Amino acid sequence: MKNIFNHMHTAEILKRIDKLSPNSQPQWGKMDVAQMLAHCSSFQDIAMGNSFPPRSWLGIIVGRFAKQIVYNDKTLPHNMSTIPTILIADDREFEAEKEKLKQKIITFQKNGPEKCTTHPHPFFGKLTSEQWGKGIYKHLDHHFKQFGV
Question: Rounded to the nearest 5°, which phi and psi values hold at 71?
Answer without folding.
Answer: -95, 60
